[in-house]
Design brief:
about 110 residues, mainly beta, six-stranded mixed β-sheet, two-stranded antiparallel ribbon, 2 helices, 8 strands, globular
Length: about 110
């Protein structure tokens, strides 16, 4: 898989279990939900899933995500599965604040 330099948003949300503010990265999506963000649990690799490929090019979500199976034991969907930096619980970020942008190496699916 090829990595590309992409802009990503720096986000944070409070963990509902321990109430600690947890930072995470997420690709911004427009009203149509253009992109989904996934984080590889094994490698920490950031994946950007192009939802237009699913909606307009008739790709299956499982087909696009299967490309990660050789590298990752598990991938988490962001913001639905944010991992708390303190208690390590997985939570859905309901209220998200942003603090800027970064350029990261990410895999585009």
């Amino acid at each position: 898989m090829k990595t590309n330099s992409l802009n990503i948003t720096q986000c944070s949300s409070s963990c509902p279990k321990c109430n600690i503010q947890t930072d995470f990265l997420m690709f911004e999506s427009g009203a149509g939900g253009d992109f989904k963000t996934y984080i590889g649990e094994t490698t920490g690799t950031i994946y950007r899933l192009d939802m237009n490929k699913i909606h307009y090019l008739n790709f299956e979500l499982s087909e696009l995500l299967s490309a990660t199976n050789k590298l990752e034991s598990e991938i988490r969907s962001i913001p639905e599965q944010v991992k708390c930096k303190v208690c390590h619980s997985i939570f859905k970020a309901e209220v998200i604040s942003t603090s800027g942008y970064l350029e990261v190496k990410a895999v585009q699916l």
